Amino acid sequence: MHSKAIGTYYENLALEYLLNKGYQLLERNYRYKRSEIDIIASKEDVLVFIEVKFRRSDAFGMPEESVSDAQAERILEAAEDFIENRLPSQDDIRFDIIAILKRQNQIEIKHFEDAFY
Q1: Fold of the 3-112 domain
Q2: Who is most buried in 85, 89, 102, 112, counting CB within 10 A?
Q3: 50 near 41, Cβ under 8 Å?
Q4: What is the pTM of this model?
């Protein structure tokens, strides 16, 4: 599998996880300029922007640690564009990370709410 297919596979796992937790999907792979938000969902009147991070091992750190300040800033810009153009009356928003770590044949999914901003 090449990296785009791998990314899609793990984004699908993250989405399945979120749907099982009661989230409603609003958008996938929302693009704004140089930014992309993997998943935009809602739960209990909260708009949630979700970055999915996958690692094959923790040798170079945990997946959730790989969201840089610059990437978080780009996600914020894209979120502002989404709200402005799609949901101008939205008040409650949150930025989450779904971290997926594969160790041997085990897949571990962690959900970090309010991960940045």
Answers
A1: Trna Endonuclease; Chain: A, domain 1 (3.40.1350)
A2: 112
A3: yes
A4: 0.91
